[in-house]
């Protein structure tokens, strides 16, 4: 059956490149850079719980990331004056600059790869990748759906 063979081939392709750029992209999704990017793209302040949801990681992991970023001077954390149980996280100019630099590097990387692929292959890749993700999301369900199902059981 072609779908079984395709699934195996897909895992082989991912495995073949996991130590390269694909692995780095996956790491960015859950680390300091993703948190900085989230804070830059969502101006104002954010709560650690919101960051944990955005990265789909634990609050303990977010606490560790925020501790590292605070030590580097890339975020500040303050107790919310209106609700002392909440911590407000704000990105600093140093954090913004780091996020911008990484974003620029990623943009250059993808631009170069897409330029090598050519316009037609790039368009086809993006169309198919979008379709793949669309079907994957339908198959898996939205992230919050699994929690709702667990709570019902």
Short summary:
The chain has eight helices and two strands. It is mainly alpha-helical and 153 residues long. A two-stranded antiparallel sheet has the order 1-2.
Q: What is the molecular shape?
A: extended
Q: What's the number of extended β-strand segments?
A: 2
Strand order of the largest sheet: 1-2
Alpha-beta content class = mainly alpha
Helix content: over 70%
Spans of 5+ residues with little confidence (pLDDT < 50)? 145-153
Mind explaining what this structure looks like?
- With 153 residues, the chain is mainly alpha-helical.
- The protein is 75% helix and 7% strand.
- The chain has eight helices and two strands.
- Strands 1-2 form a two-stranded antiparallel ribbon.
- A hairpin with a 7-residue loop joins β1 and β2.
- α3 (32-41) crosses α6 and α4 crosses α5 (59-71).
- The longest helix has 25 residues, at 93-117.
List the helices and strands and how they pair.
Layout: H1 2-17, H2 21-30, H3 32-41, H4 48-55, H5 59-71, E1 75-79, E2 87-91, H6 93-117, H7 119-140, H8 143-152
Helix pairs in contact: 3-6, 4-5
Features:
153 residues; mainly alpha; two-stranded antiparallel ribbon; 75% helix; extended
